[in-house]
Amino acid sequence: MSFRLQGDGVRLDFDGRRWLVFSWSHRDTGAGGADSRLFVEPECCVSIAGRVSGPGADLRLTFRFRPAGVSAGDLVAEIVVGADQAEPAWQFAQWYAHTYRVEHVSASWWDDAEPSAAEREESRDWLSAPVSPATRDLFRSVMARLAVADS
After folding, report:
1. N-terminal to C-terminal alpha carbon distance within the chain
2. Global pTM?
3. How does 99-113 read in b/e, with b if 16+ C-beta sit within 10 Å?
4. Most distant pair of Cα atoms in the chain: their distance
């Protein structure tokens, strides 16, 4: 099954065989009209989350990938599609999750919905993800400034 989904500033293509491709266009950003592409093997997907803020609203699909042989962390790609494409996009996500045995699939159809156990578990990942030395230094600097401001 091949599939194409056009979102807001991003396109998702699945060739049905080897690659899930996210394409971003930079034509409006002054970056010389260049396009960026992310090619991901379908088997690397570990979660798909779908979010709709209400009836007739856009669908936000968030894919999380864990490429084989990479220990630095997960890769996340997101596409937002209009309400007119939400149903076929979600059907594709469910088919994809079933076909490639995606570990976690979740859907929140309203912003005030309580997150599922899997969503709560995923949200903790960023706390323990490895960070660069520059990020660690920035965090220490901010915390030191907050401590001085409190005293």
Report:
1. 61
2. 0.65
3. eeebebbbbbeeeee
4. 61
